Amino acid sequence: MANYQDLSNEALQQKYNTLQDAYEAIASQQLQLDMSRGKPCTEQLDLSQPMLDIITSSSTVKTENGTDARNYGVLDGIPEAKAFFASILDVEPKQVIVGGNSSLTLMHDSIVQFLLHGVSEEATPWIKQDNVKFLCPSPGYDRHFTICEALGIEMIPVAMTPEGPDMEEVEKLVAADPQIKGIWCVPKYSNPDGFTYSDAVVDRLAGMQTAADDFRIFWDNAYIVHHLTEEPDELKNIMRAAAAAGNPDRVMEFTSTSKVTFPGSGVAALASSEKNITFYKKHLSVQSIGSDKLNQMRHVAFLKDKDTLSAHMKKHAGIIAPKFQTVLTILAEKLGGKGIADWTNPKGGYFISLNTMEGCAKDVVELAKKAGVTLTGAGATYPYGKDPYDRNIRIAPTLPPTEELKKAIDVLCLCVEMVSINRLLQR
Ligand code: PMP
């Protein structure tokens, strides 16, 4: 395969003309393919359909300790749900709050609490201090960045590497600036790169010196059990590492069953030190009398324990791993060796990260849109929607049926080639 960087302008122009013909042929088909969000496909949702039969009109609706799950109460989750999440997260049940249907809500509410009340009884609310700042390993999850933007928190991007955030940069920044109060982390199969943090990165995050004594790590373990291969990545337990390093209250960990059962109708959980959990519950008690216990019961009865959950996740992988493979095969076939793009090959999670040549991603997404393929907006994976290199495109392979996925990735590759050649012609 010819590297486009080495081709003459004449050769590039010729290629461009051929690609443009192909593009026009596809554009005339008026496709309507949406690859913008990481949603499970129908077959994945069907895997959890039997869960809906668990609580029927003739079911017992008492929790393990005899509470009637139909009534108010139990602020921090039914005991069996706390035990279930504790075993998944490898913490003690007393370190867990089981919430409602969304971990994003728990993250948002944690930050609001810290802004309004501080991180503990002794601490000063963040809003009573100067400008609050967060470190944002980028590319990252756009909704984390939206929370910061909505709450007036200044975002400082730091580079992501296959091992996790660039820790030289992180350590330097947090040591120097007491207004840096937090960092967003998707430590396993990160969104969008699919990277898992190395043990060394986990240890450095757990132990680093921070100028702020009310600094918190937002450990969004959304893809903790979402493996695509038989050799899952291992992630070191940061809660234990932080406690061992003398920072037991540093980490707020989040997860949910959104991409295990039903997004929007799953169960979310927060884990932290006992001290943080007690403080969180105090404020939670003002906003809620308790979350949906019937849904918690249903989930525990269906997912049961680590082994049952793992078997269930293998069924997910059976459906979506071939879709990831389809994307990777097309990318390699169409873009491999051309010197115009690279991409990640994740062992889990929901995304593949595609990096074009600098300055091309926006144009690629726009061109694809005109041909009927909607991708996640270029820039969305960076704070303020601004990718400084205009290079990163998030591919979400799970939702479309394979035939549609193939078409969409064909169009994407075509657009990457056309935009890249255009750039090269302007050299
Ligand atoms: N965190 C990450 C990293 C995600 O990718 C997603 C879903 N796309 C969420 C959180 C949302 O989780 P929930 O449905 O529990 O709010």
From TrEMBL:
Organism for this UniProt entry: Terribacillus saccharophilus
Stored CDD domains: AAT_like (cd00609)
Keywords, ordered alphabetically: Aminotransferase, Transferase
Top-level division of the source organism's lineage: Bacteria
Name of the protein in question: Aminotransferase
Keyword Calcium: no
Pfam families, A to Z: Asp_aminotransf (PF12897)
GO MF, one example: transaminase activity
